[in-house]
Here is the input.
Amino acid sequence: MTSTAEIIDRCQALFEDLNFSAARAWKAAAPGRKVIGFLPVYAPLEMIHAAGCLPLGIFGGGDQMEVIHGDAYYQSYICRIPRSTIELGVTGRLDFVDGMIFPFVCDVIRNLSGIWKMMFPNVWSKFFDTPQNFDPEIGGNYYIHELQELRAGLETLTGRKITDDDLRRSIALYNENRRLVREVYAFRAREPWKAPTSEVYLLMRAGLMMDVAEHNRMLADYLVAAAASDRPQRDNVRVAVYGSFCEQPPLNLIKSIEMAGCYVVEDDYALVNRFLTADVPTDGDPVQALALAYLGQSVETSCKYVPKEEDKGRFHVEQVRKAGAEGVIYATPSFCDPALLDRPMICGRLKEANIPHIAFKYAENSGQMQPIREQAGTFADSIKLWS
Amino acid sequence: MSEAVKENSMLLQKQMIARNYEAITSKHETGRKVSSTFVPGNLNELLMCFGIVNNLPEINAIQNGMRKVSGSYIMEAEKGGHSEDVCTYVKADIGMMGKGSIAPNGKPFPDPDVLLLSYTGCYTFMKWFELLRAEYKCPTLMLHVPYEGDGHSTKNMRDYIVKQLKEVVIPGLEQVSGVKFDIDRLREYLRNSAKAEDDLVWCLEQGKHKPSPIDAYFGGVYYIGPIFTAFRGTTDAVEYYTELRKEVQARIDNKLGPLTPDGTSFNEQKYRLVVEGPPNWTNFREFWKMFYDEGAVVVASSYTKVGGMYDQGFRHDPDNPLESLADYCLGCYTNRNLPTRVDILAKYVEEYEADGLLINSIKSCNSFSAGQLMIMKEVERRTGKPGAFIETDLVDPRYFSAANIKNRLESYFQMIEQKRRGASKAA
Ligand code: SF4
Ligand code: SF4
Here is the structure.
């Protein structure tokens, strides 16, 4: 049996490698292979996979990369992820990437899609606008066409057809991935001391940079190894972390929250592989199935409109309850409009539901962890004292 | 918008605005319904079909900025938990609620009956109306307008918008107003729109003259007023633009520049600029003065295109009413991708024979601002004309640093001079 340490070491190496050597090796292993980068927070990876390409999650540069060129493209009052993504591009770290998908998250990534077109005219790049109308007849039809357009774009890029059966096979693999991811999350909620978030996080991030079938094996191995592991249970409080779906907090911050006495039992870090909450049917029309899953079975997050006022924040409250979290840390990147505009509404709903919460901001390259540790520690203490 | 010296068109606009505020604030007496909606993707003609009065929170924020009260509203919103990092229009609006919501006519703003969430070109719109919805608990109609990521619209996008109009927006407005939709009424209004749009475009294009008879940024925000707000589709707007056209023609005939707020004609135009980005409203006159004091006139701008890009040929079309509303929404400036924005700005620099592109980058506004440094570099590269970058905010007075901006502008004008000297030497 592979140990959790071995699995996580491998994940960490993938996570830290900003030259993306593993993805490069994947591409070099067979002629004609193509790699498609995608940004947060949701892209239909099944489609990329069905095209025979490797979907590669691009989540900024973290805290290990010095941003030299990227700052010349962005004013100080814009978040970090676009500038570090540009840094990855201009320093040649993404020179093997054949296509880029910029899903709709906010206007920053939206505009970055245009910058990419200008800076890297030879890379196929696509802004991918998901529907904000959730009626299958309206938003659904629109989205089916958008997916078909994406499919056609990938077909042109690769020179091969994506058949419905290709797509069904990919959907099945990603269903398995989502099922295993949900299992890891459920396991962590049950026994958080056996699956620390600093590990689960790396496990998820690594999965966005490797072939899905391989990640599925890795998730299964981790579940076995974590269950068998013998780690002491601490007197920590159980928290959920929200607001961190796009630009990622540095790993140190994720660890600091745990070190401050919190078990993170639910989070929206990087989302992607938890964006769809149920299996996508593999019978019938696969494009329609992907579209309907997006409309009806996906998370509530800031880039999606919530049609009914009474439903706003409901997802968060329900998830907190389901995971048995005692409080919420609303941690957002600085200057992140989506998370920050949502904050009063989501936190308002938490308050109505008597769920204690705190909020703070970070940047992907935040270095000072002491204030975060103190804030999270005080929060943990207050939960212990008052609940 | 208050001005010291009034031309006829300005007086007309002032009366129109006053009448609209009166219609909004008297809704309880008249029984009319009030909607809130946004400038980009504004469906004024459609609202008119239902007798609904159009209130635009962006315009209220601008009014409050110009009247110098937005600062306290923003602080109020921040005290209430809204982040210092987000769009100040939203906070000015929400803070105003906290302070009693008084309209410029001194009467209280009534609650809206419907929020028409025309979601075009700006992410913040979605959150802004989710926030207002939580406050007013009124029907909210989302019209999702996809972004032109590949530099053009598609049939799928257009069909999607038309379908939403037919199945969400129109039935929703019928329900709120109790008025049945009449497509012929819409056609009639769209006919008026197209007439007014023709005249607006004519006026904006006169920036090509030397001296320019218009200022396409500081003056431009007045010229776009009626068409961008609650008057597109009305005969009032048609009349306004006929009048404006006459005034601009008279200035051309007399070789005069635009009127400045001091009441003088700005004829000594040394520099011709294209400006990208919205203006600052809290120090609007001071900001404008920095330009005309130095002899800089704005001959074309992107801000005057946020509520529709009529100069690129689009007109509302009474023969295809819903489709043309869809095309209108798709084509608003901030719904165009960055390469298209670069194309448009570079074309302006060439066609209006400008000395260069100045970007006023707004701290609040990711929709406009994210990517502007790249836009500047690209336009510089393509036109060979120098660009400059200044930073302010829309309605947050804390981010207007007069000394910094003045310095930047002065060095920019020096740079233009140098460039000219270099060019004349080379010739
Ligand atoms: S961190 Fe927030 S503001 Fe920045 S790109 Fe992501 S969603 Fe947009
Ligand atoms: S972000 Fe920009 S476009 Fe959007 S509401 Fe604010 S100022 Fe307007």
